[in-house]
Write a structure and sequence with these properties.
- Helices cover about 30% and strands about 30% of the residues.
- The chain has helices at about 1-20, 55-60, 110-125, 135-140, 175-185, 245-255, 255-260, 265-280, 280-285, 290-300, 300-305, 365-370; strands at about 35-40, 50, 65, 75-80, 85-90, 95, 100-105, 145-150, 155-165, 170, 190-200, 205-210, 225-230, 310, 325-335, 340-350, 360.
- The radius of gyration is 24 Å and the shape is globular.
- The strands form three sheets. The protein has a seven-stranded antiparallel β-sheet. Strands 8-9-10-13-12-11 form a six-stranded antiparallel beta barrel.
- The protein starts with a helix and ends with a helix.
Length: about 375
Amino acid sequence: MKRVLYSFFTIAAILIGLNFLGSSVSALGQEDKWEYVIQTSIESGYSTAMPFPKQIRKNVQNGKWEAISYPIPPTDTFIRENGKVAYAIDHQLNIYDRSANKILLPLMEKNKKQLSNDMKKLHRNHYGELITWNDANRLLPRYSIFKVLDLDTGLSFEVQRRAGSYHADVQPLTHDDTKIMKKIYRGTWSWDRRAILVLSENGQFAGSMHGMPHGQGALKNGFPGHFCIHFQDSITHKSRKMDHAHSIMIKKASGEWLDHTQKLSPQEIVDATVLAIHQHDWFILSPILDDRNRILLEKHLEELEEIELIKRLSDLPREDGSTKLTFPITVKLQVHRSSGTTNRMVTFDLYRPTIEEPWTVDLEKLLKQL
């Protein structure tokens, strides 16, 4: 009996001691698991993880933190602690505590260099290589078979390229592949653009697909026609120009969207806003907003998600806004909710503090018109 009591008190003392040692060791003596994770949203079904270095972890645990009054910048990179996304890392290598809304004061120089190298490696592993249509046409020849991975759901299916002079005309390989593709589009075929990775024996490439069967189909796969995959510099048959929505999704699939938003023109901001609201893709919308409008986005997400379709019906102005600080753009939009469809003239009020800074859209004024 004494031996049993002795063992009990010994284990209890060890557990208490471990608790005082801090969160780096669990009650079972196992070290907490920390890892990088990269994904376009916390809910994304596709993510890439990598071990988080112990020396940076110590810096995070023992470093000085400062409260922030602004929202955490849009990012695709996080630190996961025991399966929970606890911290965010922006593209300037700042680390934020997501629950406490704090920023870690600058990392030690050696840790910052390590973090930079890790971010580059993680980025390469997760996203697709940005290749031109000329390269894609060569690397993915007609009748080649490759895999398509949807960046948001993480679902993948196999396709065969059948044709296409300006972009790839492809078909799901089997009935099962068709079912997976339709699941990605929530059970309904759609012209909506989606960011994808094209996985072939020649590499991992950034692309954009739509989900509407059209034209001819030759495979016995239950898919009535083919669909299109675009790469950088691909053009549509009708316009002979690169489709802006496909271009946005290609930037998303290559991991360049967050940085690319700094260079968008007012006209591109309008189209990106419409696309993001239509597809409820807040990863696209958030980085083109400033802090004030990002807070508004969080407050009005439910209201925006009630919009089932939004489409631009009129042309954008060709006026150059390179020397301006404000730029109102009025377009005709079709807006559909469960209550019905309306066509209306809507003004996007775009502004920037200086000509060196990126454009943003006044979300509050836009919401009142939608």
